[in-house]
Amino acid sequence: MGAMKLNERSVAHYALSDSPADHTGFLRTWGGPGTAPTPSGTGRRCWFVLKGNLLFSFESRESRAPLSLVVLEGCTVELAEAPVSEEFAFAICFDAPGVRPHLLAADGPAAQEAWVKALSRASFSYMRLVVRELESQLREARHSLALHRHSSWKAIGSHCKPQAPDRRSPGLENGHSPSKDCSPVDSVEERGSKLARQGLAEWQGPASLFLDRRQSPAFPETSYFSTLHNWYGQEITELRQRWLRRVWGSQPAREKQDGP
Amino acid sequence: MRYNEKELQALSRQPAELAAELGMRGPKKGSVLKRRLVKLVVNFLFYFRTDEAEPVGALLLERCRVTQEEPSGFSISFLEDPERKYHFACGSEAQCQEWMGALRRASYEFMRRSLIFYRNEIQKMTGKDPLEQFGISEEARFQLGGLKA
Description:
Chain A: Plays a role in endocytic trafficking. Required for receptor recycling from endosomes, both to the trans-Golgi network and the plasma membrane. Chain A: It comes from Mustela putorius furo. Chain A is an alpha+beta fold. In chain A, about 45% of the residues lie in helices and about 15% in strands. In chain A, strands 5-4-3-2-8-7-6 form a 7-stranded antiparallel β-sheet, covered by helices on one side. The longest helix of chain A is centred in the middle third of the chain and has 34 residues, at about 125-155. Chain A is elongated. Chain A starts with a strand and ends with a helix. Chain B is elongated and about 55 Å long. At the A-B interface, strand 1, helix 1, strand 5 and helix 3 of A face strand 1, helix 1, strand 5 and helix 3 of B.
């Protein structure tokens, strides 16, 4: 049975590179060549380096070659009952057949807690989740800012009054003709409009909520600037409220997801 | 370096970002182009013989460089040895571009940089640290200061 190939040299280079380590420290480990199949004894003290979703061990802090690698995907980290009443032990457990848990032990409760936390959040999948969430928050923030600026400029220069927040009808019914009977498009409004359209182009997800509630025929392909004016005027307060709740409100559900 | 093959084999069975049959040629001189099922899962590129369930091998994609090669092909090399290239032949230019884009984004380090960028931008715009809600704002991996070129 042929062994699976891995670009080990590159992996080792990554381990030793100066890209930031996410956690380091001494841990006792069991398993390895010449050891019993089940953990026993005090284990072997090694220097561990967590980088991204990879956990490396080294003989010492100065070693230039990793002893071992654990890929932290599809695993959970649990407090463990160590052999021989070992304290501060934890295990990396995989949901895959034939993959035994990796048993590790820290030197004290703080180190144990720090390692369990770091390892629990080490997966690529978790990082991807966080990145996507921030991506979405940034889009919302940019869009909100564009609309907010747009509405400020509108307040400065425009004759168009914002509609009452509970008004539901689309822009075309508000008594303004589609042509530009509002204040002529000057340079300030042009910038605001451009920003608003850029914001719209970037921001696809929540826009569909707008469409469902408002059924605006003008959104988002409209070239009728005054329609957009009025429509945004209605939405800004509501949007900011929702956004504030989403971004700044407490989110206990998320904490549960990344627990050990 | 010791590692558990079964861990990697299990990972190779996870849902892939991209998977396709491509031509693949190893970095050694005189290696021949072979048909392989290539599968991108998190920051690993697995390659299988087309009729086998377990991968022949895996490439960790950290610190890698993806370069276009001739028409509809690309190579992967690593920072410490840029001339040592793994070659891949795609079915079309479009497929080649798709793979190159995906591979360039497939490293943990790339995601870390993206996260730090977004965090910074959101903080500038809102005055709030978006990682606080996750309870991870103090973690080393997400600090701007820890980032090196």
